[in-house]
Design goal:
CATH topology of the largest domain in chain A: Cytochrome Bc1 Complex, Chain A, domain 1
Distance between the termini of chain A: 63 Å
Strand order of the largest sheet of chain A: 1-2-3-9-4-8-7
Distance between the termini of chain B: 53 Å
CATH superfamily of the largest domain in chain A: Metalloenzyme, LuxS/M16 peptidase-like
Number of domains of chain A: 2
Structural class of chain A: alpha+beta
CATH superfamily of the largest domain in chain B: Metalloenzyme, LuxS/M16 peptidase-like
Number of domains of chain B: 2
Shape of chain B: globular
Helix content of chain B: 40-55%
Helix content of chain A: 40-55%
Oligomer: heterodimer
CATH architecture of the largest domain in chain B: 2-Layer Sandwich
Chain lengths: 426, 421
């Protein structure tokens, strides 16, 4: 029988147990004393994975395939719904798809193992008919159009299209009404067979739960099936931006903008790349955070408001800084933002400022461990990586000012684009 | 749940929950005033100003720096509609003292800062500084205008306004543009004085600190004087016994449909339990009739849910649908209402619904915000019951009671946003 190992973190005062089935399926159990227990199965298959290599052949999916598959996963062989089974055992289930992965989860206060059986059974097999796939297209089309009616979603989506030429981040997670029209039950079977292999999946449980029973149940569903994850192919993406300005009209109170600066992506999502991201996020927060000169002075000038946000995202083969907000003078915001970044490369922050920023970031990352739902989502995804949230908080605490400066200096502000939603109708 | 409720003064209440399950802590201060379209804008603008600075930290930057030093302390001020009350709320989110470096007393200092924001706002010549007020007016007006960017919330607000035009229920807590326009630094002062001197105050704390220590922090930094504790009840909506159909054009990819119903007023804990079980079966969960039929069976939408209005005899159903299928969706939703009326659901459905509600009641202890919400309910409503009592009431609900409640569900509004008609 596979043995659990334990990992502890003194800062967080937390520990977890982890192991791996012979098939490569990973299991993490985090003891927590909440009234509700949580469980999540994560598959390292998201909207980014649309082109891949298997047996020296290249395959493609229509945009939105991972999300479509997620919608169909809770459908049983006889056409009934796993939601109703969860309901019977008092489980509250849901699922999501992101750019990086797909998660299926439930929470319950009772019958944990019955619910876990329902979850693992649902995810360990699939059933599609032409008819049920066609019906789901109608539901997903309504989901897609719901997002299209949200200007704040559109302004972010358009920024990806401005920054990138062909990287899959230009597609919405759910795809478009056109792209999903190409999806058939064969597409979904292929996606399932190639990516839902145990070695590409993980289970994370958070609660007062017996780890050995979790292992036993997981072994029943994911113990034997073999296979490895095919390699996702990413197109060669230039360092420069696709389009400097991307404008669209919509019903908004005042123009919405999203400014992006394309950064160097990492091939591997490992602790070193995570550490870089942490350093750059600290720099961005020091320059644009609520306590910064940039924010306070430009707020006083009437250039910014509460909606202003600045951050850095780094994901499967793409990385960029995002600066967003609302207001008609977005060009000045962009010029001032670039000026602020360039200025800080030369006149770096004081140690006092860095210590304060790190302390604030430490406090913010503590809150992740105050929610069972957030814990399973984060730790189930971490199982696909070579580091976890424990390593992440340690990296944050011992990051040096030099690393922050190096991360900031690697930013080339010439690779900058802006997406704008103007007031008006198309 | 380890809860202590105390009356610090007449009209000033504190409810705390001691729990060691979290690495952070939440304290909220809520002033309750009647929801009124003449005054909502003033309170709304007031909270925007109170969250910017304090007398001791008068600039945005000095205020942000002290919050960062206090471990990224969150200090927010905002207004919230609750039935027909307006809550003017200030809230702090801090890390638990046991996670601070070198034994710093974060809660004590955070409460001190909260007290400064409440009792010592940044004023110039005794009023809110005009330049700040003018800019916050611009920001608030944009915030009110931007509601339309979230189509679902906007449609729900329009449905409330159309169905209950002269009731406080239809007032948007954020305020109204022309009323915000008319405010200035001096006109804000009566709003400020009213919450400090007259409005009942409800304080909650959830976190690791002992009751005595929380009370010590509150007494030291939040010394509210006694005040009247009276709160008005919600107005009962008089059913019109006819269906009003309103369609508002907006350039949108899909239509938002909101159906308004009147129901029996759930004005006792027993009746609220019946309403909760009814709602769970009808449209409150993925196992409900609305989700299983309107979405899953008929594929008409991505979401279709019911929303009973808290402490008001009104229920809404909302869904995002393709243009042109409005009537098909309306018919389908009415069919689910009829199913409820005819009692065409099983004891098993009732049992599952009850389990789901009990689970969600028990889950209140999963996070600090839901604990805070529970604590506020305990001191704000004079007929509040504990979680255990709620569970018992839910488990006692019978099929006959659910069906009897369903008979009172009467359609009164069809509101379509964006559809062609």
């Amino acid at each position: 029988m596979n043995r659990f190992k334990v990992k502890e973190n003194k800062r967080l005062k937390e520990k977890y147990y982890y192991t791996q089935l012979d098939s490569g399926f990973k299991i993490t159990v985090i003891p927590k004393d909440y009234p509700t227990a949580f469980a999540m199965v994560s598959c390292d298959f998201g909207s980014a994975d649309i082109e891949y290599e298997k047996n020296q052949q290249i395959y493609k999916f229509p945009a939105g395939t991972a999300h479509f598959l997620e919608h169909k996963m809770f459908e049983n062989e006889d056409g009934s719904d796993a939601f109703l089974e969860f309901d019977r055992f008092g489980g509250n289930a849901n699922a999501f798809t992101s750019f990086e992965n797909t998660g299926y989860y439930f929470s319950c206060t009772d019958n944990f193992f019955e619910n876990l059986n329902v979850l693992l059974k649902a995810v360990s097999s699939v059933h599609f008919s032409d008819e049920s796939v066609e019906k789901e297209k109608k539901i997903i089309a309504q989901e897609i159009t719901m997002y299209e009616d949200s200007p704040s979603t559109n302004v972010a989506k358009n920024l990806s299209r401005a920054l990138y030429f062909s990287h899959p981040t230009i597609h919405a997670v759910s795809g478009t009404v056109e792209s999903i029209s190409e999806i058939t039950k064969e597409t979904l079977f292929r996606a399932y067979d190639d990516f839902y292999v145990p070695a590409n999946m993980s289970l994370c449980v958070c609660g007062n739960i017996d780890a050995l029973t979790v292992l036993e149940i997981a072994n029943k569903y994911f113990g034997t099936k073999k296979g490895t994850r095919p390699k996702t192919m990413f197109p060669d993406e230039p360092k420069t931006v696709n389009k400097k300005v991307f404008t669209e009209n919509s019903i908004v109170a005042s123009p919405l903008y999203c400014i992006g600066i394309k950064c160097n992506p990492f091939e591997e999502n490992d602790l070193a790349s995570h550490r870089f991201a942490t350093a750059l996020r600290l720099a961005i927060s020091l320059i644009f955070g609520r306590a910064s000169d940039f924010y306070c002075q430009n707020y006083a000038k009437g250039l910014l408001n509460e909606r202003f946000y600045a951050g850095y995202t780094q994901s499967k083969n793409c990385a960029h800084i995002v600066i967003s907000g609302s207001g008609s003078d977005y060009n000045t915001v962009m010029q001032e933002a670039i000026k602020a970044i360039e200025d800080k490369k030369r006149n770096f922050f004081t140690n006092e400022e860095i210590v304060r920023e790190k302390r604030a970031a430490y406090a913010e990352s503590l809150t992740l461990f105050d929610s069972g739902e957030d814990i399973v989502a984060s730790m189930a995804a971490c199982a696909h990586l070579s580091y976890d949230d424990f390593d992440g908080i340690d990296a944050l605490c011992d990051i040096t000012p030099e690393e922050i400066k190096e991360a900031l200096c690697s930013v080339n502000t010439e690779n900058c684009a802006i997406s704008i939603i103007q007031k008006g109708t198309d | 749940m380890n809860v202590k409720i105390s009356r610090l003064q007449e009209g000033v209440y504190l409810a705390s929950c001691k729990t060691d399950k979290f690495k952070s802590a939440v304290m909220t201060v809520s002033f309750a005033v009647p929801l009124d379209s003449d005054t909502a804008s003033g309170y709304s603008l007031l909270t925007n100003l109170m969250s910017l600075s304090t007398g001791k930290y008068p600039t945005m930057q000095s205020f942000s720096i002290i919050k960062d030093e206090l471990y990224a302390l969150g200090l927010d001020a905002y207004v919230q509609r609750r039935g027909e009350l307006l809550l003017v709320r200030l809230e702090i989110n801090s890390i638990a003292d046991s996670y601070a470096f070198d034994g710093e007393k974060v809660l004590y200092r955070a409460t001190e800062l909260l007290g400064d924001a409440i009792f010592n706002p940044h004023l110039e010549n005794g009023i809110f500084p005009e330049n700040k007020v003018e800019y916050e007016k611009i920001c608030l007006i944009e915030e009110i205008e931007s509601l339309v960017e979230n189509k679902h919330s906007y449609a729900m607000l329009r449905a409330r306004q159309i169905m209950c035009p002269n009731e406080p229920f239809s007032v948007d807590a954020a305020g109204e543009i022309d009323k915000v326009q008319a405010l200035d630094g001096e006109k804000l002062m009566p709003f400020y004085r009213n919450i400090i001197e007259n409005a009942p105050v409800f304080i909650t704390y959830a976190g690791e600190a002992d009751f005595e220590y929380v009370e010590e922090c509150v007494k030291a930094h939040l010394p509210f004087k006694k005040r009247d504790s009276y709160l008005p009840d919600s107005v009962i909506h008089t059913p019109k016994n006819e269906i009003t159909r309103v369609c508002e054009q907006m350039e949108m990819e899909q239509s938002i449909l909101v159906l308004g119903f009147t129901t029996e007023m759930a004005n006792t804990p027993q009746k609220r339990a019946i309403l909760t079980v009814f709602d769970e079966i009808f449209g409150g969960s993925p196992a409900s009739l609305l989700f299983m039929n309107v979405r899953e069976k008929e594929g008409l939408c991505y979401y279709c849910s019911s929303y009973p209005a808290g402490r008001k005899n009104i229920l809404f159903v909302s869904s995002g649908i393709e243009h042109g299928v409005e009537d098909k969706a309306i018919e389908s939703i009415y069919r689910q209402v009829d199913t409820m009326k005819s009692g065409d659901f099983t004891e098993e459905d009732i049992k599952n619904a009850k389990n789901s509600i009990v689970r969600s009641l028990l889950s209140a202890e999963n996070n600090l915000n839901s604990i805070s919400g529970y604590l506020l309910g305990q001191i704000l409503n004079n007929d509040s019951v504990t979680i255990e009592e709620s569970i018992n009431l839910v488990n006692e609900v019978t099929k006959d009671e659910i069906v009897a409640f369903a008979q009172t569900v009467t359609p009164e509004l069809v509101y379509i946003l964006g559809g062609a008609e």
